[in-house]
Automatic annotation (TrEMBL):
InterPro entries: HAD-like_sf, HAD-SF_hydro_IA, HAD_2, HAD_sf, PGP-like_dom2. It comes from Anaerotalea alkaliphila. Pfam families: HAD_2. This is HAD family phosphatase. PANTHER family: 2-DEOXYGLUCOSE-6-PHOSPHATE PHOSPHATASE 2 (PTHR18901), PSEUDOURIDINE-5'-PHOSPHATASE (PTHR18901:SF38). Gene3D superfamilies: HAD superfamily/HAD-like (3.40.50.1000), Putative phosphatase, domain 2 (1.10.150.240).
């Protein structure tokens, strides 16, 4: 029987079905400016902090791209979409969180997104009450795939990495968890992990429901 003192969740693409929306947002903003954002390029951004996203856009499209304006417009586009349609929570997530809470297992969010955005999304989605804390991208010096964010999550809860579990959707997040010495379940979103990243996980599952079943079996 395995004992988990903490389960750490990524946010975008893992809890919130936002990656496809974000891709649509970049295309909507960049297209009229003459920049064609293709899915192959977009998937290289998944799980990375905003400074890395900015760098990748400049590398792909040149120094002249108005990246700050694009980022501002994309975030505004996404916020308007969430306000109009609601925050799209992944199926089975609430049930998984409720199960962990019932078993007395603490939970945290560890995301590359900034604090203000994270707080808005957790409040709007109704997920905030399920979590014991969060660590955001603007609260660490080094973003994923560096392990800092996950190590800080464990330290904040007083749980050794070996007694924690990470749920991630991106290769960047898998690598960060692996470097932190924390077991990782991957629930892929837009991109399934390559074999070298699969080897860094304890499981690659298709849903939060499957993750709940996996954790439940480990606890028995």
């Amino acid at each position: 029987m395995k004992t988990y003192g903490l389960v750490v969740f990524d946010m975008d693409g893992l809890m919130i079905d936002s990656e496809r929306m974000t891709f649509e947002g970049y295309r909507a903003v960049c297209g009229p400016l003459g920049y064609a954002v293709e899915e192959e390029f977009y998937t290289t951004l998944l799980g990375t902090p905003e400074k890395t996203v900015r760098r990748k856009f400049v590398e792909a499209f040149g120094e002249g791209i108005p990246i700050e304006s694009i980022m501002d417009q994309m975030h505004a586009w996404l916020e308007e979409r969430f306000a109009r349609e609601g925050v799209p929570v992944k199926p089975g997530l609430v049930e998984l969180l409720a199960m962990l809470k019932a078993k007395g297992i603490r939970t945290m969010v560890a995301t590359s997104s900034k604090r203000a955005r994270v707080d808005r999304i957790l409040e709007a989605s109704g997920l905030g009450d399920y979590f014991d804390g969060s660590i955001c991208g603007d609260e660490v010096k080094r973003g994923k795939p560096d392990p800092e964010i996950f190590l800080k999550a464990c330290a904040k809860m007083g749980v050794p990495p070996r007694e924690a579990l990470v749920l991630e959707d991106s290769e960047q997040g898998i690598q960060a968890s692996h470097r932190a010495g924390i077991p990782c379940i991957c629930i892929p979103d837009m991109k399934r992990p390559q074999p070298e990243f699969v080897e860094m996980t304890v499981a690659v599952l298709d849903s939060h429901t499957a993750a709940a079943d996996w954790i439940r079996k480990k606890l028995c």
